[in-house]
Specification:
The protein is 56% helix and 9% strand. It has 263 residues and is of the alpha/beta class. It starts with a strand and ends with a helix.
C-alpha cells in the first residue's frame, strides 16, 4: 500500500519540492500551506508520516507537534522536523516533545528518504507488536470468553515508573493527557517525557494509547458491545476518532478485527 506523507511548511516552494521528490519515490503526498491547515490535514487524512518545518508563523513546529501528540487520533503518527535550527537545545526539545527524527538544512533527498524509512520501519514494528499482543491475548474459540493475559499486563513493570503506570492504568479510559500524568506524579511534562522514553523507548502518549487499544481488543473479543460503546469505554468520546485510530494501528476497522479474530 502506498504510504501517505503530509508536509507542513509555510513557504510554498519548499513543500512543492518535497512533494515532487517524494512522489517520484512512490509516496502519496499531501501539502499544507500553513501550520493551522497542517494540523487539520493531519487530523482529517491520518497520514503515515508527517514532515514539518519548525520556524513558521501562527504556530511553530514545536506547537504543532505538541497539539498532534495530545490528540489521541494523531498521537502515534511518525513525525520528522526539518529546520535550519542546529543547536543541541533545539534538537533536545524536539526529541522531548516526541519527534521521531530531526533533519537540519541543507540535506539531500537520500538523507530524507533514510529518515522516512527509519520512521516507517519503527511504526511497522509497533504495529507488529500490537498484532503479537492481540494473538497472545485471544483464545482459539469465542465460546471461551476468558483471556489468558489481562490487558493491564501490557504496561511495563518498572519500579521507578510504577506511579506513572499505575496512574495510566487507573485513568486511561478518561480524556487523559501528558500534563495530567505529569501533574499526578509531580514531574514537568518535559522531564516525564524524557524519563519514560529513556526507560521504555516510548512516550507517555504511546503507553496510554497501547493500554486503550489492549482494552479495546479485549472488549471486541469478549463482549457483544457495539463499537461506539467500546470507544467510550476506552477513552474515546468520539467513536469516529476511535475507529480511525484503531485502523491506523491495526490496519483494520474494529468491526473487521472482531470478525477476523472471532472466526
Amino acid at each position: 500500500m502506498m504510504k501517505k506523507i503530509l508536509v507542513i511548511e509555510d513557504r510554498a516552494e519548499i513543500p512543492n519540492l518535497f512533494l515532487e521528490d517524494l512522489k517520484t519515490q512512490g509516496f502519496y503526498t499531501i501539502g499544507s500551506e500553513n501550520s493551522i491547515a497542517g494540523i487539520h490535514r493531519a487530523q482529517e487524512e491520518l497520514p503515515d508520516l508527517i514532515i514539518c518545518e519548525i520556524m513558521m508563523p501562527h504556530l511553530n513546529g514545536y506547537e504543532i507537534l505538541t497539539k498532534l501528540r495530545q490528540d489521541i487520533v494523531t498521537a502515534v503518527i511518525p513525525f520528522i522536523f526539518v529546520t535550519a535550527k542546529r543547536t543541541w537545545t533545539d534538537l533536545r526539545k524536539a526529541m522531548e516533545l516526541g519527534a521521531d527524527n530531526y533533519l537540519t538544512k541543507p540535506f539531500t533527498l537520500d538523507e530524507l528518504l533514510r529518515a522516512i524509512a527509519a520512521c516507517l520501519e519503527k511504526q511497522a514494528t509497533l504495529q507488529q507488536w500490537y498484532a503479537a499482543q492481540s494473538q497472545r491475548t485471544s483464545e482459539p474459540s469465542y465460546a471461551n470468553t476468558a483471556m489468558s493475559v489481562a490487558p493491564k499486563s501490557i504496561l511495563p513493570s518498572i519500579p521507578t515508573l510504577k506511579e506513572v503506570f499505575d496512574f495510566i492504568e487507573t485513568n486511561y479510559h478518561q480524556p487523559l493527557t501528558l500534563r495530567d500524568v505529569a501533574q499526578a506524579v509531580g514531574y514537568s511534562p518535559t522531564y516525564l517525557t524524557s524519563l519514560v522514553r529513556c526507560q521504555t523507548g516510548q512516550t507517555v502518549y504511546c503507553w496510554i494509547i497501547e493500554r486503550r487499544m489492549a482494552e479495546a481488543r479485549f472488549l471486541l473479543l469478549n463482549t457483544g458491545q457495539p463499537v461506539n460503546k467500546i470507544a467510550a469505554a476506552v477513552g474515546y468520546p468520539d467513536a469516529g476518532h476511535f475507529i480511525r485510530h484503531f485502523r491506523q494501528i491495526h490496519n483494520q476497522t474494529p468491526k473487521m478485527w472482531r470478525n477476523l479474530h472471532r472466526s
